[in-house]
Amino acid sequence: MKKCLFWLFGATLALTACKQNSAGQNPAEQNIKMDDYEYLVESLMRFDDEGNITGYMIGDNLNEADPLEISVPVKNYEEAVAIFRSLLPQDATVKQEGMQYSWPMTDSLGAEIGELVLDTLSGHIGHIRMKGRGPKIDPAPARAKAAQRTPKCLFISETAWPENSGAAEEILKDQYYLGAIVEKTQDDGFGSGKFVVIAPWTPQNCGLMIQLDPKAYYLDDMPKKKCSGKSTLHRVYKELHTGNNYHDIFEVIGQQVNWPSGLSGWYLTKTKNGSAYYCVNLDNDNEKTYRPGEGNRKIDSAPARRATAASSDKLRMAYCYCFKPDGDKIKFW
Fold first, then answer.
1. How many C-beta atoms surround the C-beta of residue 331 within 10 A?
2. Residue 180, SS3?
3. What is the C-alpha separation between 21 and 92, in angstroms, rounded?
4. Which of 98, 103, 131, 197 has the fewest CB atoms within 10 Å, measured from its CB?
5. Would you tell me how many other CB atoms lie within 10 Å of the CB of residue 95?
6. Burial readout 40-60 (b: 16 or more C-beta within 10 A, e: otherwise)
7. Is 239 helix (H, G, I), strand (E, B) or coil?
8. What pTM was estimated for this model as a whole?
């Protein structure tokens, strides 16, 4: 398992907590925006609580000496642009100057922390890098200064992509196609049971399969350790609502996997800002936050998502496994 020198875990812990309500202050005026850097990290890779990288959301790591270097095979620069945009929040503002695309990044309080830039690169089709000071991370004494580095993505030609040496790609083709029901007997961190493949694996993106818990929980009773990140649930929404996927997958086989009768409702994520937990609505992709102790068990609207909240005070879980070929086996994370 590749190590990340705990930098990712440090980035998560470094998020600045929201200010508490003061008398007479409108809760919607509080800035409870997610840190852009954390969102980027969640869009690129998954990691455990000890800082080990467990898997890559796009492409793969071809340079074992640098686990923060991700390579992605593409046909052309236009495909690289599409992948770049897919990494960003749904309301991200992207600037373009010639062949260069950039996303101004801010922290949870709205302060600028640099730009994420996609540009051409000699010897490659393109690359993504972060310009600016980056996030403020205070490494623990045991961590090296390298823990403060930021990830980078290299877009390489499909013809330069190494072929998988095992039989796993055939297994994925035959058993992990769009809409396939996968019986997960081993709990690799996100539960066991029947999962539905909503995105087959490609060299550009990890595969994704999910299990929707029909039970609704209060926050204090939820199995938070099995939560996926906010960006993962946004990808779940995108995959379910691409073309006829929602109808063809959810409506047709929902009963077989014991899914709830509809996607409306708030699904908890592992991502939080201080004491505020993020929730994503898989029916309309709205976001909300939940603060334990403030109006106990009440869901508050985030400033950028002021949709009227006549929703349940209970939350749901979407258990999400990513997967890719790994020799003769399938790797899950």
1. 17
2. coil
3. 27
4. 98
5. 11
6. bbbbbbbbeeebbbbbbbbbb
7. helix
8. 0.81
